[in-house]
Design a protein that fits this description.
The chain is globular, with a radius of gyration of 20 Å. The protein contains twelve helices and ten strands. It is 38% helix and 13% strand. Helix 1 (45-67) packs across helix 4 (112-128) and helix 1 (45-67) crosses helix 5. The strands form two sheets. Strands 3-2-1-4-5-8-7 form a seven-stranded mixed beta sheet. The protein has a three-stranded antiparallel beta sheet with strand order 6-9-10, covered by helices on one side. Residues 1-43, 271-304 and 315-334 have low confidence and may be disordered. By secondary structure, the protein is an alpha/beta fold.
Length: 348
């Protein structure tokens, strides 16, 4: 035991993949926390028993697969490294335990990436050994999925917080591949030195969002990144290394810790009001341009639990690798034309 806490080490695999450069995925699991929540009807134990048992076996298989992987072995090494240990101890302060909140996990019944992310949350809690409890929210979670999650000691958040959880106690937010607006909402709700110091974010790389802003000459995802960009200079980001086998569920994931002396050090990037019913649209040189990849319409009926939504920094990665962005070809063409027209208007 060091720093008042210990890490419980699970079984590791003997082999370990090093210096892997995975190919870019066509899709990524999006965060679902902004869609209207469907009603959770009373669960009928007899009707759903078979489904629950089948899903439990799938989740246990995902946990075993992840636990025996070289990716998780490297993840444990990082978790035990002096930088991460010191930062976690600093967040804990005088508290013996840390809360854990999981946003946007997706459908663990129909999406393997969601199951692997859920498996990592389970293994992370076991490895840390000082997690007070895990709360989870995603509007696509079904009664069967909730029953299975509860068997792993997860509890459902009763309402959609849209990421606006205030950290009155040390809290680890587990948010792989959530949309930018959820990270932004979380930071806004905790915008102050005492609160930011209490939170840890394991999710999309904030430096990736900053790179996206830079790639578009200072443009930003209006209403979705101003707090992310504003806190960057006070953020210690530690990248989670990922191999090709687990690239889809965990690429562009980082630990984020926040350090600042006073609230006066916090600055914001000025934002414009968002367009109605749009999440994550681009504001480019004063003109709103809706990209087809990470634009989400909350009114969409029956959205797929694993669609092709992607984060802004993934688009930057695609550009660097010269890989075409995957999506609806008509929407891409319209988006491309809108950008070209914006540039022409600026020249004129």
């Amino acid at each position: 035991m060091e720093d008042g806490w210990t890490i419980v080490i699970g079984r590791r695999s003997k082999g370990r993949s090093r210096n892997a450069r995975p190919s870019l995925p066509k899709t990524t699991a999006p965060c679902r926390g902004l869609y209207p929540q469907p009603p959770l009807h009373a669960d009928d134990d007899h009707h759903h028993l078979g489904e629950s048992l089948l899903l439990t076996r799938k989740v246990e298989a995902s946990i075993k697969k992840l636990q025996e992987s070289s990716f998780f072995s490297a993840f444990l090494d990082q978790l035990q490294s002096p930088p991460v240990r010191a930062k976690l101890a600093q967040v804990l302060g005088s508290y013996p335990l840390i809360k854990m909140v999981v946003y946007g996990i997706g459908s663990i019944a129909s999406c393997e990436r969601a199951r692997l992310q859920f498996a990592l949350a389970v293994l992370l809690r076991r490895a840390l050994g000082f997690v007070a409890g895990i709360e989870v929210f995603d509007p696509v979670i079904s009664p069967v999925e909730l029953k299975v999650m509860e068997s792993f000691d997860f509890s459902m958040i009763p309402t959609d917080e849209q990421g606006r959880r205030v950290a009155h106690e040390p809290t680890l937010f587990f948010m792989p591949h959530c949309e930018a607006v959820l990270y932004n909402n979380l930071l806004e709700a905790n915008w102050g030195s005492p609160f930011l110091k209490r939170i840890v974010v394991l999710g999309n790389s904030f430096s990736g969002y900053e790179q996206f802003v830079s790639e578009f000459r200072g443009a930003h995802i209006a209403g979705s990144t101003n707090y992310i960009i504003g806190v960057r200079e006070h953020t210690e980001e530690i990248e989670v290394k990922v191999d090709e086998e687990f690239f889809l569920p965990f690429h562009d994931t980082s630990w984020h810790f926040f350090e600042l002396g006073s609230d006066s050090e916090l600055t914001l990037v000025v934002r414009s009001p968002p367009l109605q019913n749009q999440v994550g649209y681009l504001e480019l040189q004063g003109s709103a341009v809706s990209p087809p990849i990470f634009w989400k319409d909350p009114s969409t009926k029956n959205p797929e639990p694993c669609n092709s939504g992607s984060s802004p920094h993934e688009q930057v990665a695609r550009k660097q690798r010269s890989v075409p962005v995957v999506g609806n070809e008509c929407n891409i063409f319209s988006w491309f034309c809108s950008i070209i027209q914006t540039i022409i208007d600026g020249i004129e």
